[in-house]
Amino acid sequence: MTCKEVEKMIPLFLEDDLDVDDLRNFMEHMDKCEDCKEELTIQFLVLEGMARLEDGNVFDLQNELKFCMEDAGHTLKRRETMQWILYAAQGLTVVAAITLIALVAVLF
Ligand SMILES: [Zn+2]
Question: What pLDDT, in 10s, does the model give residues 26-39?
Fold first, then answer.
């Protein structure tokens, strides 16, 4: 994933609008790319910080962003788990269907 692609995803990330694969790639890129992290920090500040300051709250940028990233990490894990459960359920359904067909074929 290139920096350009990641940059385009930042607004989507901040609105929690990325799907599991995009979110995973996004987080991985943020882990090792300082440029994109800086861009994220700026956009985060603009989007979240301004809203917060308008409400008259204090805004601790570094901490807030850290929470936001941690939260995204948790969300990613949760969604990945859900995806696996869905895959497993689909797999089981297929196995059950095949078993049933095989059983019907043997019995009748
Ligand atoms: Zn980058």
Answer: 999 999 999 999 99
